[in-house]
UniProtKB/TrEMBL annotation:
It comes from Platanthera guangdongensis. The chain crosses the membrane at residues 12-36, 86-106, 118-137, 143-161, 173-199, 205-228, 240-263. It is a multi-pass membrane protein. Residues 20-262 form the Oligosaccharyl transferase STT3 N-terminal domain. Its EC number is 2.4.99.18. Pathway: Protein modification; protein glycosylation. InterPro entries: Oligo_trans_STT3, STT3_N. Belongs to the STT3 family. This is dolichyl-diphosphooligosaccharide--protein glycotransferase. It is found in: Endomembrane system. The lineage of its organism: Eukaryota, Viridiplantae, Streptophyta, Embryophyta, Tracheophyta. Its cofactor is Mg(2+); Mn(2+). The keyword Iron does not apply. The gene is STT3A. Keywords: Glycosyltransferase, Magnesium, Manganese, Membrane, Metal-binding, Transferase, Transmembrane, Transmembrane helix. It holds the Pfam family STT3.
Length: 264
């Protein structure tokens, strides 16, 4: 028996309102994640904290001033003194390239921010993106309510805040987002069997490899999940589509990162 038209329209309106409300809440969560990480800037000033973040800032300065070719071939005699350091072959370039690209885009739009300012605010910006990625991941598994709950928990969890406050310009600033987003795309591919999402998953994995040595979490956990599915008799074409492009395409891309190479 078909439902009356007024019931259908009422359900449609409720779904639309729920979607708009969820979007509004997730935007507020992103604003919260960004805002609560600005305490050091508000209380003191816009500065880079600690040794490693300052080294990353120096590398980003060099990249924006001299270009990517010089960056890959730069021998920095002020680091690891007196041995020096070949920057292109010893750093995970994802953080530097991300901040450098943001600086270039902003200056192309006639927003003349300094390199230091972009570096200081990179982590808070990506903390909001990480909260949104967490929402997408959890929503894919358990629904909208669980996704919103997970997003706000990630936005305020102290262990993540300590690695993503303004001025904490280290690899985790962008890598946590890349890690969560890669897992989201993997689950999305499992649920849809879409080769498009599988390709995005491989690209996201490549970005993760570029950003942080923690890519080993992904390259170990996902094969373990696939093996467990096979052992439990839950192999399917969607599992194959989710895993094969990630291993083949993602590994080939990851090998292009000099610090990783073929030692995957």
């Amino acid at each position: 028996m078909a439902s009356p038209p007024d019931l259908k329209s009422g359900a449609t309106l409720r779904n639309a309102f729920g979607g708009v409300l969820a979007l509004f809440i997730i935007i507020l969560i992103g604003v919260l994640a960004f805002s609560i990480r600005l305490f050091s800037v508000i209380k003191y000033e816009s500065v880079i904290h600690e040794f490693d973040p300052y080294f990353n800032y120096r590398v980003t300065q060099f990249l924006t001033k001299n270009g990517i070719y010089e960056f890959w071939n730069w021998f920095d005699d002020r680091t690891w003194y007196p041995l020096g350091r070949v920057i292109g072959g010893t750093v995970y370039p994802g953080l530097t390239l991300t901040a450098g690209t943001m600086w270039w885009i902003l200056n192309s739009l006639n927003i003349p921010l300094s390199v230091k300012t972009v570096c200081v605010f990179t982590a808070p910006i990506f903390s909001a993106a990480a909260a949104w990625a967490t929402y997408l991941l959890t929503k894919e598994v358990r629904g909208t309510g669980a996704g919103l709950t997970a997003a706000i928990l990630l936005a305020i969890v102290p262990s993540y805040m300590s690695r993503s406050v303004a001025g904490s310009y280290d690899n985790e600033a962008v890598a946590i987002f890349a890690l969560i987003f890669t897992f989201f795309l993997y689950i999305k591919t499992l649920n849809t069997g879409s080769l498009f999402y599988a390709t995005l998953n491989a690209l996201s994995y490549f970005y993760m490899v570029c950003s942080w040595g923690g890519y080993t979490f992904i390259i170990n956990l996902i094969p373990m999940h696939v093996l467990l599915c096979i052992v439990m008799g839950r192999y399917s074409s969607r599992l194959y589509i989710a895993y094969a492009p990630l291993v083949v395409f993602g590994t080939l891309l990851a090998a292009l990162v000099p610090v990783v190479g073929l030692m995957l």
